[in-house]
Amino acid sequence: MVLPLFAQSQATLTTDQTDYYPGTIVTFFGSGFDPFETVTMDVNHLDGTPADAYDSWEVTADATGGFTTTWQLCEEECVGE
Asked: Model-level pTM greater than 0.85?
């Protein structure tokens, strides 16, 4: 029998706050990913509508399957969204 090197776990993504003022920096914390997995970050509006104006970006999980990344929240055009 061949056993996996790493146990599969539930990947999670959290932020450092529950709400943000326009123009602030959002910090994302990922955990439970495969070690060194490439994760694509994509920003969506609260209602699930894709924010096409924002570029997605990639982060790489560390040896424990975690990562930290940031994104600057838009300023005037995102108030109330």
From this structure: no
Q: 36 with 66: CB under 8 angstroms?
A: no
Give residue 45's identity as a one-letter amino acid code: H
Q: Is 60 helix (H, G, I), strand (E, B) or coil?
A: strand
CA-CA distance, 12 to 22, in Å (whole number)?
A: 25
For 67, the token pair is: 């990562």
Q: Counting Cβ atoms within 10 Å, is residue 33 exposed (0-12), middle (13-18) or buried (19+)?
A: buried
Selection from 72, 42, 40 nearest residue 59 by Cα: 40
* Residues β-bridged to residue 41: 57
Whether pLDDT at 32 is above 60:
yes
User: Mean of the per-residue pLDDT values for the chain?
Assistant: 82
